[in-house]
Amino acid sequence: MAVDAGLHQGSKKSLVKNVFSLGIVQVCNYVFPFITVPIVSRIIGPDKFGVLSFASSFVTYFTLLINFGFDLSATRAIAANRNNKEERNRIFNQVVLAKTLLFSISLILFLIALFTVPQLRDEKEVAIFSFLLCFAWVITPNWLYQGMQELSRVAIFNLVTKVIFTVIILAIIRERNDYIWQPLAISIAQILVGVYSFVYAIRRYDIRLALSRLQPVLQLLWSERIIFFSMVVINLYTTTNVVLLGFLQSETQVGYYSAGYRLILIIQSLISIPLSQAMFPFIGSAFGQSREKGLDMVRQMFPVVTILTFSAALVLWIFSPLVILTIYGHKFEPSIMVFRILAFVPVVVGWSNLFGIQTMINLKMDKVFFRITAVGAVTSILLNFLFVSKFGFVGTAISWVLTEIFIVTCMYVVLSRNGINIIEKKYFSPSQLKKYLRPIILSVKQKINR
Q1: 23-60 pLDDT, tens per residue?
Q2: CB 3.0-4.6 Å disulfide test: which of 190, 264, 380, 413 passes with 403?
Q3: 3-state SS string over the chain?
Q4: Model confidence over 71-113: pLDDT tens digits?
């Protein structure tokens, strides 16, 4: 069955393969580490779990700066020049140099924060070990593999990373004070695999390393600033929730919120994120053929994303007490409330991704997308100050839900005013849903049977 009439059979197979591969990537990112969580969480407790979550969230700002939205912009550029070796080399060298410069800036800013932010100053080892992960993002060219539509490579690399991490964690965390080694284990595993994936990419795609001139690199950063700022403001109402909670409340409350928050990310890791990343090159290609073909493909995916995320969210909401207590233990019982409040966030995030990343970005509405997410970020910060002070970690969860609803509503209104309607009833019919879901389901079954 065709996902879209405009796609060739080879592209359809590649799309399904990429969706599955990205699903594996996200499972590794969030689910695989949960092999260690039932053991580690019981050893270190909610407070130290909160310490690790705060440091990880704080370092995310530097990760954002280093990646600079290249997972979208560089992917788009590579996808458009897959068969142009010289252009591919130029893009690769410029992006790597840009990331190196951004890492240098990040290092300076991190050292300043290390001695000025109390939460980092009191846990220097955890902060430093967490920051080491940033170097891995300089040398890990996932954006190249994504643009070349070979995401199975990324899936393999991520699997190896998580295996290394899990083995180290289970071997060294034996008592409460061993919590400091968790971020070091993550960083070491990611750097090792990052080096290998970098070398492998150079050999596979016959890339010639060369030192790019500084001016083109600076021009690249300037041209991609809108996407970068959009990624920053998006994280202001996700990652910043944890950081603000750490500033306003105790480490234990950060631990309660982070436990529920991380579990909710499983839904996005299994469905929303792989669908989004795998669909982006193909939707971009459809928009390249014509505006209407691109919009029609987004319309087809809306009911698929809605049904998959809603079904998963409903199951998790029902079984939330069992899930939380089984994974984290009874010390994390307050996290059940967080988990239930956030259960349907991935549904709304899936919608905003289709409206924003898949539609607005491909229609070159980058500035409108940025304004909406910027207003959403400001709204999130205000809501956090309003609710966290009164309701603690529960207020953080409420703030995130309200922010996501506000943002997706703004996107829908803006698109409607521009004559763009993404939601069409005809695509929700059982026959249409079967048509779009069948290739994905068949691919998963084939992988399982193997």
Answers
A1: 566 556 656 667 788 888 889 999 999 999 999 999 99
A2: 380
A3: CCCCCCCCHHHHHHHHHHHHHHHHHHHHHHHHHHHCHHHHHHHHHHHHHHHHHHHHHHHHHHHHHHHCCHHHHHHHHHHHCCCCHHHHHHHHHHHHHHHHHHHHHHHHHHHHHHHHCHHHHCCHHHHHHHHCHHHHHHHCCHHHHHHCCCHHHHHHHHHHHHHHHHHHHHHHCCCHHHHHHHHHHHHHHHHHHHHHHHHHHHHHCCCCCCCCCHHHHHHHHHHCHHHHHHHHHHHHCCHHHHHHHHHHCCHHHHHHHHHHHHHHHHHHHHHHHHHHHHHHHHHHHHHHHCHHHHHHHHHHHHHHHHHHHHHHHHHHHHCHHHHHHHHHCHHHCCHHHHHHHHCCHHHHHHHHHHHHHHHHHCCCCHHHHHHHHHHHHHHHHHHHHHHHHHHCHHHHHHHHHHHHHHHHHHHHHHHHHCCCCCCCHHHHCHHHHHHHHHHHHHHHHHHHHC
A4: 888 888 888 888 888 888 999 999 999 999 999 999 999 999 9
268-291 pLDDT, tens digit each:
766 666 666 556 666 767 777 788
